[in-house]
Each structure stands twice: as structure tokens, then as C-alpha cells.
Amino acid sequence: MSSSGAQPSIFSRIVAREIPATIVAETEHIIAFLDVAPKAPVHVVVTTKDPQYQNVVELAAGNPTLLAELVAVAERIAAERTNGQFRLVFNTGVAAGQTVFHVHAHVLGSSTPTDSLGEDSLGAL
Fold first, then answer.
1. pTM
2. I want to staple 102 with a disulfide (CB 3.0 to 4.6 A). Which of 9, 14, 94, 112 is the partner?
3. Any catalytic annotation for residue 102?
4. For the chain (length 125 residues), average pLDDT per consecutive 10?
5. What is the DSSP string of 42-87?
6. Which residue ranges form the domains of the chain, and what is each CATH number?
7. Which of 4, 96, 16, 121 lies closest to 52, judged by CA?
């Protein structure tokens, strides 16, 4: 879990509306927005509004109900934007490409059925 004296993450600042983002979905506990450096034709970041969980492992152990809500929001976004065919990627740890230590998932997909995601969409997210 994050330390109490740490600076707010970029995602916490988006939640607080301190940093602009193109928000595509929001619930009481979850917010989703377009990635500013997309790795796929559809690339949406889905995160919790609560910054206490740094990664998906912490979230699963600490609040599985919130994890289920995050996945449900991701699925809804994918249904709307990718015809339900998508990758849902959680990076956990620096070596795995995690750069923001506020749990989040990347919804990656294509808006057209003929496009497919190449392996480069699994690069640094």
C-alpha cells in the first residue's frame, strides 16, 4: 500500500480533476479515461478512485469486490469500443512495466473487427 506522505499519483490527480483527461466511464469507485500514449487503436486506462492499492495483487487481496467492479467497467468499455474483443493488462512492478503505482488496467483493442492487436501493443504500457 502507498505511504501516507507520498505525493498523489497522476491518476489521483485525474480523479480530483487537477489534470485533464478524456473520461469515458465513471462509477462511484472507478474512473476510466483514454491513455495519452495509446499502444492500440483503443487504449483506455481503468483505475480505482481509491489510491491505497498499488497493484492488482494488493487490490485482489484487500478488496476483491472493487477488483470485480474494475473488471466489469473494463468489460463494459470493451463491449462499447471493441465489440467485446480486448486485452485487459495489469502491470505489476517496475520490471513488468508499471510506472504509476496506483492500481490500474489497460483495455486494449480495436474498433474494427478486421484489425488485430500486434505484439507491440504489449510493450511498455
1. 0.87
2. 9
3. no
4. 69 97 98 96 97 97 98 98 95 96 97 62 51
5. EEEEEEES-TT--SHHHHHHH-HHHHHHHHHHHHHHHHHHSTT-EE
6. 10-115 (3.30.428.10)
7. 4
